[in-house]
């Protein structure tokens, strides 16, 4: 069938560059994958059981569009406990199909055709596509290795134009593992105020930080009204397959997003909501345990990569290392492709993550400790052959 039937909007959006590597890796034997950005843990047992109980007790119906009130209340308490920020569970919180849906809704309710959204890069592979699908124009502003991949407020200020509607940030960051400092976030908050911009803060990795504080952007002075906070259970609670995330925002923004969600989704899975409620109630010790485990792997992969000769900024959050591969003379796509074919280690080329990503590859260390050790040996062998 001809693609002439497709809208120009979708024709202009390239497929995710990351898929190619997953697909190639999945056809090969004995591959160590550092490519997929998801926890290797299974969802904690009490959370699993809550999902099973939910189904067995006949919770098989629709819920309210925003998600069960009890769950919204629990999330409001959770955000207050962690970040001292108060959201009204009746008007300012909704549950979505992962943070992914929240991103899509946020871009869709904010952008008119041609409106610009500043995106701090290197970034999650979906951002540019989601902005384009909403009719907007992504304006990429790169974080640099020299700044430990923290934001550069001056570069963001320089990118603001009369068409700028919002700034999209993600800390802890996929793919760099960076955690933005309070000072830079305060500078971004001042820019948002001065130019009357909305900030979309994707904080899906908020609980995975190593010895540093995570600053919740809307908790900064004056920012709650201008921030769309996106979060979820996929990473912190090892629940990627349940597909549950959330949005917290001022009522005008949240209600617009909810209107769209009502027509497209109606409500998210009831089972996932009941499991997430259990995660909020009893999941804390599991989050701590998983985080400690990631920390152990983080230390190993970072020191291993540096020893091999791939300089790696210490990632302070999420579960990614982002080594600099420029010394090999290969670009990131060639590096990833050859490493996969020659040594069967899958990593993701930095070029997939937008401006500032070339010259790096992303290694996800949410992989068994001994597999990471073996991957490091293979990478070392690969580099010595180049
Ligand atoms: C920065 C970032 N945001 C959002 C998502 C999507 O998360 P979810 O599973 O909640 O849709 C991911 C997944 O990799 C991510 O890395």
Q: Main traits of this protein?
A:
binds pyridoxal-5'-phosphate, alpha/beta, Aspartate Aminotransferase, domain 1, single chain, three-stranded antiparallel beta sheet, seven-stranded mixed beta sheet, globular, 386 residues, Aspartate Aminotransferase, domain 2
Could you give a short description of this structure?
The chain is an alpha/beta fold.
Roughly how many Å apart are the termini?
44 Å
Name the overall outline: globular
Question: Which value, in Å, is the CA radius of gyration?
Answer: 21 Å
User: Can you tell me the CATH class of the largest domain?
Assistant: Alpha Beta
Count up the helices: 13
The percent of residues in helical segments reads 40-55%
Give the strand order of the largest sheet, numbering strands 1, 2, ... along the chain: 2-8-7-6-5-3-4
- Are any ligands bound, and if so which? pyridoxal-5'-phosphate
Briefly note the structural class of the backbone: alpha/beta
* CATH architect. name of the largest domain: 3-Layer(aba) Sandwich
CATH topology of the largest domain: Aspartate Aminotransferase, domain 2
Number of E-type strands: 12
Largest sheet: 7 strands, mixed
Order of helices and strands: HHEHHEHEHEHEHEEEHHHEHEEEH
* Low-confidence parts: none
Q: Could you name the CATH homologous superfamily of the largest domain?
A: Type I PLP-dependent aspartate aminotransferase-like (Major domain)
User: pLDDT average, as an integer?
Assistant: 96
